[in-house]
Prior knowledge:
The chain is mainly β. The chain contains no helices and 18 strands. The protein has two domains: about 1-10 and about 25-125, no CATH class; about 155-225, no CATH class. Helix content is about 0%, strand content about 65%. It has an 18-stranded mixed sheet that branches.
Amino acid sequence: MKASIAIIALIASCSLAAHVWSDNDYDKVETKSLSMSSSDLSSFAIEAGSGSLTLIGEESNEINVTADVFQKKSGEQYCLTLGSKNGSKDAALLQANTCDNNNGTRIDLTVRLPKSLMTTITDGSGSIHVSNASVENINDGSGSINVEDNKVSLTVNDGSGSIHVTQLAGDVSIHDGSGSITLNSITGDVEVSDGSGSINVDDANSFTLVSDGSGGVELTNVKQKH
């Protein structure tokens, strides 16, 4: 069964000058709910702009999204869609706050999905929290990243912000600009390229430091060190 639901939230458009807002500048304007069946899906991609992202894996055959929308000025245009990716029957895509003129909007997302659904995340800014899921790739501009009980190997490309990964079944590869890195209970191999910030690894099969700008490295219960 081909399941595809697309919701596009368009609120009266107006011109917005480039500006950097703090969280205190935003007011909550509404909450949106999106859902689709995941029965035929083999992959899921998330593309998000400004805002936090919480991803929770469950025993389920649906993707359910709760989006809390905050704006500097109520009535600005924003984008929010969930549906098939490029018309594919087995791939889904969630896009939030990725269209033009989104400087005045922040969308905080909570996504519940099958814990075995292979997922990739592309995020502009804001914290990311993943729990009990199968995330294989995170590309993040800025903001903290927390991953707990991930079911597959993970690659992280991060501009800035702390990274904390615990209980991961597979390998971890991290390319980080700045921010501390803490890894615990990794069943596979760890590889890190780091600009600045401390690196702490406890319980992994191996550790390889490809490059390191500044910051200490502490390894505990690591079988092989390169």
